Amino acid sequence: MTKKKLLKELTKLLVYYPQHKRSIDEVSILSEMWFEDLKDIPDDDFHQAIIKYRIENEYFPIAKDIRECYRQMCRNRIKDTKMLPFPDMTKEKLEKNKKMIRDMRVLKGV
Q1: Helix (H) or strand (E) holding 48
Q2: pLDDT tens digit sequence for 43-62
Q3: CA gyration radius for the chain?
Q4: Are 47 and 5 in contact (CB under 8 A)?
Q5: Which is nearest to 63 in space by CA: 75, 48, 46?
Q6: How many angstroms separate the Cα of 1 from the Cα of each of 40, 73, 85, 108?
């Protein structure tokens, strides 16, 4: 993530949660700390994590909250991916593989 993107999103959060008034110096320090904690998150994912957090929560987030939203997004992406199609297999190849698995189980004592 870029510092510019982080500062833009952090500013949006400060507007969205006006009860958390912060001075310019506090925002600067907060943006530095958040950048250290979240710099590995891509810009678009960071933006989506911020939106996810805003929709689901009523309090100003800490960096850990945004990281958790990002992790949830990543887990959901993995769930949504399709498996590769099962390769076509002849009956002989299938039987050979089954025999190999049975032999391995015998060797392992399963």
Answers
A1: helix 43-56
A2: 999 999 999 999 999 999 99
A3: 24
A4: yes
A5: 46
A6: 6, 16, 35, 48
The 3 state secondary structure assigned to 68-86 is HHHHHHHHHHHHHCCCCCC
Q: Two tokens at 99?
A: 């025999």
Structural tokens at position 30: 């907060």
Amino acid occupying residue 37: D
H/E stretch holding 55: helix 43-56
Global model pTM greater than 0.70? no
The helix/strand/coil state of 20 is coil
CA dihedral 74, 75, 81, 85 (to 10 degrees): 130
